[in-house]
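Researcher: Good morning. I'm working through a list of sequences from a screen, and I'd like to move beyond sequence-only analysis. For each chain I'm collecting a predicted structure so we can compare shapes side by side. This is the next one on the list. No need for commentary yet; just the structure.
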Amino acid sequence: MNAIMEMNGFVNSIVWGPWMLTLLVGTGVYLSVILGVPQLRYFGLMFKEVFGNLGKKSDSEGTISSFAALSTALASTVGTGNIAGVATALHLGGPGALFWMLISAIFGMTTKFAEVSLAVRFREKDALGNWRGGTMYILEKGANQKWLAWLFAFFGFFASFGIGCAVQANSTAEGFLLGFGIPTVWTGVAVAILTALVIIGGLKRISDVTTYLVPFMAIFYIIGALIVVFTHMDQIPVALGNAVKYAITDPMAMPGAIAGWAVKVALTKGIARGVFSNEAGLGSAPMVHATAMVDHPVRQGMYGLFEVFTDTIVICTLTALTILTSGVLTGSPELSGAQLTLSAFTVVLGNTGTMILAVGLALFSFSTILGWYWYSETCGTYIFGNKSIPVIKVFWIILILLGAAGGVLLGDAAAFLTNLWDLSDTLNGLMAAPNLVALLILSGEMRRLVKDFDEKRKTGKIKI
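Model: Good morning. Structure tokens for this chain:
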């Protein structure tokens, strides 16, 4: 196991290293240029599409509504990365990490826009009549690269066990233990039962739950974060100024700076945590967006724009501002991850802040379990066929119990979860390589889709 983890560490340093991060952001920049900067051009249209069609039924092909697909995708992207990941990036890279996180998100909006649009363009029905789509179908049907399609599905399937299941179950259990003192084993049993009741109903039931859960949990957390930020309103300009200043200058000059801060670390950690949070370029969310009932691929692509905007530019920025404005980043340099965010909340709200963060962390993690289950099933059925679905569901429930209640069920739960997280993190990063190949090969097709969408809007064939 030690040899495997050493090898994993080497591979991880590559897939989440400067070259891959440059390729991820570079792809977003390239697509932004050739597609006419859709994150700006469609910005107002994006809100009109997302909120203007709430409750409206569509007779287009698909399984669930566009908003339900968005909610399910957000369920998987809005997770522990928005709370613990942002704090870790600031702890390691200083205030400048926020700047680079936002830069990566701006171009990541276009990357997600293209991923989602192409997923709808190349989706298909499986033998059971379920709509399936995502990078593997884009690579096979659009780019004629079936071996890369299989490789992506392989990476996604095994990454889901840690990134989307066991580690998230652990975060849910820790959240309730932190806020309410509930033993992790009971939380694990409860989460396993609730998850089983949801996933047994397939995508429609998953989307029904996330359509209500995701808006509630996002608003709940945003309100709590806004209270913390507005309590230190006079520090907002300072925090934003430091984010820009120390993105391009040495943050060690900042009073109370933590040893190890540097411009390079701020850049790499900011981009890495941003990508990890919104998953732009990794190819996960298109697997659920491909099931939407929508009349044109680019229309659904705008939900991809909104997904990244909400996840990173809104929620991650608010988390960063709670930390930067409250002063805990330099005042408590020994804290990192969720503990740093918790400190920012408790400075203002006391025990109430602890409960808000605990509930927020638990809900974010639970929603991620539901969203990532669909990704696991989609990748699994691509490799093994539809007969594997019952096995995947059972294995998913077992991993929830091991992740949440590992301290009781396993002798060395910490080592198990750490190794599973590290392996899954690497596999999650490896998903980006075949996904970016698909986006670059089919950039011309994406350009054609955008042109077709714009022409149909002008002529009134498509109305938003």
